[in-house]
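Regression test attached.
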Amino acid sequence: MASCVYFCDLRGKCILSRRYRDDIPSSAIEKFPTLLVDAEQESAVVPPCLSHNGVYYSFIQHNDIYLVSMTRSMSINVAQSLAFLYRLVEVLTEYVKTVEEESIRDNFVIIYELLDEMMDYGIPQITETKMLKQYITQKSFKLIKSAKKSKNVVRPPSQLTQSVSWRPEGIVYKRNEAFLDVVESINMLISAQGQVLRSEILGKVKVKSRLSGMPDLKLGLNDKGIFTSGTDLADGTAPPTTKKSNIELEDLKFHQCVRLSKFENEKIITFIPPDGDFELMNYRLTTPIKPLIWCDVKIQVHSRSRIEIHCRAAAQIKKKSTANNVEITIPVPEDVDSPKFRYFHGSVKYLPEKNAIVWKIKTFPGGKEYSMAAQMGLPSVTDVDTPKSKRPVQVKFQIPYFTTSGIQVRYLKVNEPKLQYQSYPWVRYITQSGDDYTIRTT
Amino acid sequence: MSDQRVFTRHKAYEIRAELQQADNKRFKASAARQKNALKKIIANITMGYLNEMASLFPEILKFWSIDDDMEVKMACHQYALAMAPTKSSHFEEALKLIQDDFASSNERLRIMALNTLSSIPRPSYYSACQKCLESVLTRSSESADLKRAALHAILNMDQADKNSARPYVSFLSQIINEQRQFPSVRAHALSVLDALNESHKDLPPMSLSHDTCFNLLELLPELNEWDHTLILNGLTANYVPQTHSESHHLIEVVLPHLQHVNTSVSLAALKLILYLINYVDSIHESIVKRLSSSVVALLNKPSELQFLVLRNVILLLLGRDKPFLQIDVSYFFVEFNDPIYIKDTKLEILYLLAKEDNLRQILQELKDYATDIDIQMSRKAIRAIGNLAVKLENSVDDCINVLLDLLDFGVEYIIQEIISVFRNVMRKYPEQDSETIKRLVAFNDSVQEPESRSAMIWIITQFSRSLPNFLTLFRVFSDNFGEESLEVQFSVLNSSVKFFVRTRSSETEELCLKILKTAVDNADNPDLRERALMYWRLLSLVQQRADSNISLDDIVEIVDGELPLITLNTRLDPAVLEELELNIGSIASIYLKPIGQVFRLNRTMTLPQSPVLNRNRDSLEMIPDTRSSKSSASYSDPISTRSRAGSSPVKKMNDHDKPAETVNHLKMKRRTTIGSSKVTRKPSILSRRISIKRPFT
């Protein structure tokens, strides 16, 4: 329960604010820039929560702005405040495309309106963009004279108070379609010796629904829990599952539209989707996986003369599939000069601003192994004190039509009780590198 | 006029003139100009020119009464709210207008009026507000939004006047129980009541009945995600289970909410479950697994939320002797891209998680961090290794070896930190071999910082027996006694006396006297001078008077006695811990500080008494996963009973050359085109049609 929400620029100066409660003086935000600087000087660690004079500032950073929510009490749910700030950014992105200082300044009227609707007395209210768009448009409202019938008065759509708060009624599409995107991101941490320290698959099922009315959707996946639990529990002896194609998903997280209790009891994913794009569910898998793009980097430093880099990369995927847009970023020391490269595939560039060389390979067929060598000169005079940089090698890639976990959509049933239309579900799979697909260097 | 132009400083008379000018011209364009003038007023108030704008109250009142435009009304209410501290005499006139607004049929306007009424601290406003509140909350025809606004108005009034909200307490609990009320109104009533309870110590603790609790939980599917949090939060510590089965049942009901994508919902569910666990006799292992895995899943959130989750993980780890969470350490390995505050917290968790069996892995990680490019990080990692050595007695050799390895790295700040850390390690384990000590003192000349310097002095003094040249080593510090920092001066003083009482030679005596003399004669710091004098008198007691009853042995005992053992205390006070566990996901959990320390007037949260409350938190029995136990229908679902043993992510990869088998290649036929991601679209729409036309079975 936040007392107020502020938008601040990079130095912490206030751009725009909305106060929900009166318990914090408006001067409190003026302290924020100094607090930021102080915290930074003190330990170089600026946690997303600061306190001063009994006021707690919790904030997130997005592009060149800070979103700050303040509160007086320590017992407030800061998870909620932070989650709200992220949702706020999401909603604003829908309204103003990129959320940054300039767009905030240019759209302050609508942002005030949004802040009014999204939070009430510090408690988040409606945060679904589709619902907000129903009655927050760029135009202002005209009040209809009270003498007239009150029927046409602008008021929040009645759905807001109904059970399906995320979907308005009366949506009509000529062609009813639902698009499913199964996106898996691989995070991997590999030690310099080629040992996989950690690997995980982060999966997402994104849905774009273009369906009329109030459809009830049922999604079938080849998840072990979902498919075999019925028989398992019936006889109680739990026969080992023989179907190889079934996999186990861990830590499923669902969008608010999914009926959690139904999933808990019957293992069926049913939901009334919001209109348009949304993320239906995400999951995580920790089964050990081999590096899909394996990469062996040898860096030899001949002190004060040159540095040699040998890199071998292999696509450890089936021959039929290919990895696209493979990008291997290898860190090099600052101030190297005269780079020379030797390679047969892709392109290699030295990026001085990032202190790295980047090897890009547009298509990398499965089972192939490519290699690259680079040589660069080092300055003959070096500063003795600079410690060795320990930046890791980072790898990016995309593999279409492919899920590492083996998850498959078995069916997506669409049932609209009133309209009874035919609908078309579409499914697409892609595996890509996550934020952390890194190989440590020695 | 652009928005920027509005945000310039204006004088009151300028705006007044503008308003009047617009008033004179009776045509349509004037409305826009009036609004613009109003915008300027609000903008000026926002910029802090409150006094200047205060004189415009009569104009505002005029607009209020004549104009029915929503935007104008909004500006007027905004103005009134901003003027609240000025105690203007115009408020009485405004009250009438606000009440008129409340009587209108426009809902947004009514909400606004209610908010304004409750926020202006004047008695006449309060009484008006109370009337409105009663009419809104009792009438069932009013909308949910208005009722919610009324509930918040109660809190608003409570803030200004502690007694005004009191009459509503019983009324609120009535709303919570009322079936006909809108679900969201009931949720908000719960949270308002909870907030009132927190700020009024004298109110009896609200205890919800079993039925109320389950009724509220049944509402969850009808509420939006934020209201989920309100309910889950509101139930924590307010509903007291009376039997074990009650709490078991409740845990079962709440479990699915751990899977909510919204962090605040799943943290609130976690909090409620942890609270309920205090009221059960045994807990199923699968539940623990689910809790743990839901925490791990939360670590994939944006960094600020991740930070919050990590802080709460620390809290949970501190909570019990045998930590409740079973999370593999590798999730807390620091990643290159992590913001520094996350790295910091992860380091702390790694330290807490370290046990004999995972130490090797953690030490390897810490060693990596110690050579990190970031100096802060590297120092903290070294400190963590040192603390681990003190914490885990059986693995001290491993830790020391890592530290000694790091010494060879030769970077200055690493050496400094290692020396500082070694003081604690050697204090705990005095039986070090002389090789280690010799390697440490080799860096005698390169330590610069006060802390590491005094650590080095301590090491030299303590292990002087295995150092034949200890006096030469010591002179490095004692020669510049005057220029050292205070911390080092104290160490030098102390050590010189120790040397003297230990081995009484002319060399040590001379050294000791020199230091004492400098300290007494030249030191500016009174503490240092006093301490030197104290030593001096102590020593002269033995030397001069033969009849004194203090012998040299006594002095040795005083100056160079046995040091008490050190232990690292990572435990929190149980009462504090209890309170913090009830505050998971709050700011208190970030600072790991109890709320009572900061806000004395607030009620501290404690576990309410109940016949089934567990007194000893470690006595909880863990039921291993078997299907025979009761209510296995929901406990033993295959997702949660998976074994993690086989899925330890640390595996040696020997078979790089073989294509990965776990990769599942999917048939091409079901792919489709959606804009967002970068998969190439298939060229022919026709071919797509053919392949997709058939809906899934």
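Expected vs. actual: identical. DSSP finds 35 helices and three strands in chain B.
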